Amino acid sequence: MLIGVPKEIKNHEYRVGMTPESVAEAVHHGHQVVVEKTAGDGIGEVDETYIAAGAEMVDTAEEIFARADMIIKVKEPQPGERKMLREGQLLYTYLHLAPDPEQTKDLIASGATCIAYETVTDNIGGLPLLKPMSQVAGRMSVQAGAHCLEKAQGGRGTLLGGVPGVMPGKVAVIGGGVVGFNAAQMAVGLGADVTILDRSPEVLEKLAMHFESSAKTRFSNKANLEESVMEADLIIGAVLIPGAAAPKLVTREMLGSMKKGSVLVDVAIDQGGCFETSKATTHAEPTYMVDEIVHYCVANMPGGVARTSTYALNNVTLPHALALADKGWKQALADNAHLANGLNVWNGKVTYKAVADDLGYDYTPAADAIAG
Question: For residue 294, which of 137, 139, 195, 150 has the smallest C-alpha distance?
Fold first, then answer.
């Protein structure tokens, strides 16, 4: 199979779909890999390293989309990239379709077969291709939030860890999954006063056992959420419903009860965000103010630490990429029900139920696509 790796073009996105080591593995499996020149610069890997791994370097993304059987990316294809997709071509990347009707419409029109990293599952109910980026984003959310709390950034001027004689800042983490756990770890490490909210008793018990007295856990109902948000200096939105739009848990009205200069970091922004006042931002302009509350809603947070993120991502995406290339997508999905859960769009049809439900499309089961 001919695999194509274009350079990412989303604002301040420095990651790349395949590392040189991943290219070498694909070549070892008998496949050709075409990489756009300078695609690896953002992770410190020059073209010569890719050539040494067996890749062919080309000048433009247009050539890659025209030639490749499978496109491997990191972020969702941008409008110009979507126009280059063609019928029968395989796209393997993050998509986050539920809050993005325009992308969904374009992918349907393209006729391409689109597999989303974020909905591939594993045998313990996890999302293994999303997990490493959730770990990165969770940890980065506290770094970003701590920076935004500085007075020069519009924040309250609060140091999360405090100092002797001065109380630490308060952090509320909404959601105790992978993002929330990693955010709490970082906040606890900085010495902040941390509260984690979740609706699952099992998750709360697990978090309580792990953090013991270093972080508090709280059941996430309306009253507890409102009180925690009102008291916090930094609120981390870490809510995920796989493949679906995130619920709006913090309303515009609740902002009025919050401390002026407190910070909201919405890690769920890829799925539309879990704060009513959230809108996607970029690393170039990461924040904005609503009612004197700082909002940080960067939609590709892990791109800020591109080298760590790319290598962590390739560790989990490569085995499936090789299966898709070795067997063809239909056989690979037939052999692995968890990979089949990643199929979101096929032949002009939506094949992931949460996306179909959220955007009003008819749902076609992935099994029909595999058999088609």
Answer: 150
Domain containing 202: what range? 131-299
* Catalytic choice (198, 233, 266, 270): 270
**Known catalytic membership, residue 29:** no
Looking at the fold, whether 222 and 79 belong to one and the same domain comes out as no
Task: Note the pLDDT tens digit of each residue in 165-181.
Answer: 999 999 999 999 999 99
Q: Reply yes or no on whether 326 is catalytic.
A: no
CATH number at residue 289: 3.40.50.720
Burial 134-162 (b: 16+ CB within 10 A, else e): bbbbbbbbbbbbbebbbeebbbbebbbee
Catalytic residue among 96, 100, 106, 320: 96
Reported for 215-219, long-range contacts at CB under 8 A and 24+ positions apart, including other chains, are 215/184, 215/187, 215/188, 217/176
pLDDT digits (tens, 9 = 90+) for 280-297: 999 999 999 999 999 999
| Number of structural domains the chain divides into | 2
